[in-house]
């Protein structure tokens, strides 16, 4: 079931593409040269377009960013859970533990830091010890256009 959910999330994310996709890919790449601080990333983030919503709240806990993460894609199952990640260059790399269809699942989640907020990376995944993990984090794509903007 976890594989099907992860694939559905990836397809849903990629199907929500818009014309900003190339700009977002460039932003993630140019953002890699900037220094980021955990405290600057605290706050609430939201993507809302075409009846699709992503909400993320982040706070600093020791050397990690933790918070609640919710995906609600039109005509797809909503999933709600917790995110815990660490800062690695211009990426937040972590795990998303969530409930969907009455089952608890865990999947690796990578968020690229861009000037306007965050954008999730997508790539090939495998089930490793009951958790969905990226095959190669160096080959993630950030060009789907779903910019999760920081709410001020």
Give a structural overview:
The protein has 152 residues and is of the alpha+beta class. It is 19% helix and 49% strand. It has three helices and ten strands; from the N terminus they run H-H-H-E-E-E-E-E-E-E-E-E-E. The chain has helices at 2-15, 21-31, 38-41; strands at 43-49, 52-61, 64-72, 79-88, 91-100, 103-114, 117-120, 125-128, 131-134, 147-151. The strands form two sheets. Strands 1-2-3-4-5-6-7-10 form an eight-stranded antiparallel beta barrel. The radius of gyration is 14 Å and the shape is globular. The model is unreliable at 1-33 (pLDDT under 50).
Please report the number of helical segments: 3
Cα shape: globular
Order of helices and strands: HHHEEEEEEEEEE
The helix/strand class is: alpha+beta
Low-confidence stretches: 1-33
> Helix share of residues?
10-25%
Beta percentage is over 45%
List the strand order in the largest sheet.
Answer: 1-2-3-4-5-6-7-10
Rounded mean pLDDT is 82
> Compute the gyration radius: what is it?
14 Å
Q: What separation lies between the terminal Cα atoms? A: 37 Å
What profile does the largest beta sheet have? 8 strands, antiparallel, barrel
Number of strands: 10
